[in-house]
Amino acid sequence: MILLTRLSGSAFVLNADLIERLDSTPDTVVTLVDGKKYVVAEGLVEVVDQVRAWRGSIIAAGSAPITGVDPHATHQRVHLAAVSSHPTLEGEA
């Protein structure tokens, strides 16, 4: 989500995944995938920078260590139960 400002001065948060395109006419116009348009006070480059930073934060959060996992273990094995034949499939090979 990115924080933008309408030309009236009111701030709003926009889901950056919904942006289809940005235009500078000379005001910055954000067009969403559903066709809705927002005219914002931020410049074109500033909006692009915000989107890049937001996407980078998502990637960084996804690569953060998971709590409860031993960070010093080089290999953590998961032990699964043995698989046995299903009684209705025995003899059908």
Please give a structural write-up.
The chain has 93 residues and is of the alpha+beta class. The protein has a domain at 2-62. It has one helix spanning 44-62, and strands at residues 2-5, 11-14, 19-24, 28-32, 37-40. The protein has a three-stranded antiparallel beta sheet with strand order 3-4-5, with no helix packed on it. A two-stranded antiparallel ribbon has the order 1-2. It is elongated. The N and C termini lie far apart (55 Å). The mean pLDDT is 84.
Task: Compose a concise summary of this entry.
Keywords: Cell projection, Cilium, Flagellum. The chain is 20% helix and 25% strand.
The number of distinct β-strands equals 5
Radius of gyration: 25 Å
- The number of helices is 1
How are the strands of the biggest sheet laid out side by side?
Answer: 3-4-5
Estimate the strand proportion. 15-25%
Ends distance: 55 Å
Q: Could you report the average pLDDT, rounded to the nearest whole number?
A: 84
Order of helices and strands: EEEEEH
* Contiguous runs where pLDDT drops below 50 for at least 5 residues: none
Roughly what percent helix?
A: 10-25%
Shape category: elongated
Largest β sheet strand count, sense and barrel closure: 3 strands, antiparallel
Q: Provide the structure class.
A: alpha+beta
Features:
single chain, SwrD-like, flagellum, 93 residues, 3-stranded antiparallel beta sheet, alpha+beta, elongated, two-stranded antiparallel ribbon
